[in-house]
From TrEMBL:
InterPro entries: Kinase-like_dom_sf (IPR011009), Prot_kinase_dom (IPR000719), Protein_kinase_ATP_BS (IPR017441), Ser/Thr_kinase_AS (IPR008271). Residues 37-56 have a biased composition (Basic and acidic residues). ATP binds at K193. Its EC number is 2.7.11.1. It is an enzyme of class 2 (transferase). PROSITE patterns: PROTEIN_KINASE_ATP, PROTEIN_KINASE_DOM, PROTEIN_KINASE_ST. It comes from the Eukaryota. It comes from Discina gigas. This is non-specific serine/threonine protein kinase. Gene3D superfamilies: Transferase(Phosphotransferase) domain 1. Keywords: ATP-binding, Kinase, Nucleotide-binding, Serine/threonine-protein kinase, Transferase. Residues 59-77 have a biased composition (Polar residues). The gene is SAT4. It catalyses: L-threonyl-[protein] + ATP = O-phospho-L-threonyl-[protein] + ADP + H(+); L-seryl-[protein] + ATP = O-phospho-L-seryl-[protein] + ADP + H(+). Residues 159-414 form the Protein kinase domain.
Length: 414
């Protein structure tokens, strides 16, 4: 119960990574999860037997599979946990827009039956996605007309921009295809983020905003942070940021398709998220917009934090103390309450708050609330009341895991 947990808060821990891992460098595929009894589990790449050598202890399908006569399921299964405590991810390589289009089609023809009558359905990720579709409907036609006016430099270095894999307030992201110079039969893929100028934004502010984001993202080198390669201008003068391509899509689309994630799968992604957050904070950088849409995945389940458009440096390399920050930014369900109430606050703490909300979204397929403001959101008010009650707050207590109760109590502390 919440009333029986430790008294550590977000301000005490700054980053929750030390509650979930013992630090150290994580490899690109090391997403093994700590077991309940806190013993160390060897990373996935250390497990020598192949997939066909053993039967998985549990399987999370990307679509409902047929397992007959006790035979080992095919490699199309999304998540496989083995008896020795290790696991493997096998995410289908599909573009985000294709996945979302498939889900929309299923929703329209009635294949996916959603009951939106309950009060908590207003917090479901599916409900939020449908609202987002309504807001973005007018942008679809414009985005499909073509990619950036490619300059010789962009084409020569990274190939031609083609299909759309994501879109947001900043603009859109396309895949760039370049023939592999070492093997003409294959191609190298890059993600190219096309920036748009905001309304009323001067060319000087536009340039400053993009170069600031690029300077932050390109300076970070960690397996759980996206690798930013270049910043170029196209023939129209618009900027394009080139990044590594993650074929597994993003965490938001994965949870939306799955409904919710099982414990082992959610814990693996969460551990990787906390490793990335811990590294950023050690480097003096706060993200300020952590959410499932900004967490990309490889087909092998490696998670990478992306989109540093709201990122800021709270401590320079020669400084020991962190600077406080101010201002409201990010997506409403993940914004910490102090951003609404305090003139200044620790940017690390708001990142940590967002990680707790993200974990609950993975496990339940819902947002905890729409906005963390007591007078404006009935669900947040219920959360505050539940924390005072001996029985705790039901959505978190229903996870039935003492370790995660304690962590979420620390992270979602007011």
């Amino acid at each position: 119960m919440f009333s029986q947990t430790s008294g550590k808060t977000r301000d005490d821990i700054k980053t929750g990574a030390r509650l979930t891992s013992e630090g150290g460098n994580a490899s690109d595929t090391d997403c093994s999860i700590p077991p309940t009894q806190e013993k160390e589990i060897p990373p996935v790449q250390d497990r020598k037997p192949s997939l066909t050598d053993r039967k998985p202890a549990s399987i999370t399908p990307s679509s409902t599979p047929e397992v007959k006569n006790g035979t080992t399921p095919t490699i199309n299964q999304r998540f496989m946990a083995f008896p020795d405590g290790t696991h493997e991810h096998h995410l289908r390589s599909a573009k985000r827009q294709e996945k979302l289009s498939d889900m929309l089609r299923d929703l329209l023809v009635g294949k996916r039956k959603e009951d939106h009558t309950g009060e908590h359905d207003r917090l479901s990720l599916m409900s939020s996605w449908v609202d987002q579709l309504k807001n973005e409907k007018e942008k679809l036609a414009t985005d499909k007309k073509g990619g950036p006016n490619s300059t010789a430099t962009l084409v020569e270095k990274y190939g031609k921009c083609q299909e759309i894999i994501g879109r947001g307030a900043f603009g859109i992201v396309r895949i760039s295809h370049k023939v592999d110079p070492k093997n003409g039969q294959s191609e190298q893929l890059y993600a190219v983020k096309e920036f748009r100028r905001r309304p009323q934004e001067s060319p000087r502010k536009y340039h400053k905003r993009l170069t600031s984001e690029f300077c932050i993202s390109s300076s970070l080198r960690h397996p759980n942070v996206i690798h930013t390669l270049d910043l170029l201008q196209d023939a129209k003068g618009d900027y394009c940021e080139v990044m590594e391509f993650c074929a597994g899509g993003d965490l938001y689309t994965l949870v939306l398709a799955a409904g919710k994630l099982d414990v082992a799968e959610a814990d693996c992604y969460f551990k990787q998220l906390m490793r990335g957050v811990e590294y950023m904070h050690e480097m003096g950088v706060a993200h300020r917009d952590l959410k499932p849409e900004n967490l990309l995945l490889t087909t092998h389940g490696a998670l990478k934090i992306t989109d540093f458009g709201n990122g800021e440096c709270f401590r320079m390399a020669w400084e020991k103390e962190a600077h406080m920050t101010c201002g409201l930014c990010g997506s409403a369900p993940y914004i910490a309450p102090e951003e609404y109430t305090d003139k200044e606050f620790d940017p690390r703490a708001v990142d940590v708050w967002a990680t707790g909300v993200i974990y609950m979204a993975m496990r339940t397929g819902r947002h905890l609330w729409r906005v963390a403001k007591k007078d404006e959101d009935e669900f947040f008010e219920k959360y505050l009341e539940g924390r005072k009650d001996e029985g705790g707050y039901a959505p978190i207590e229903n996870l039935h895991r003492v370790s995660i109760w304690k962590y979420l109590h620390s992270v979602l502390h007011l």
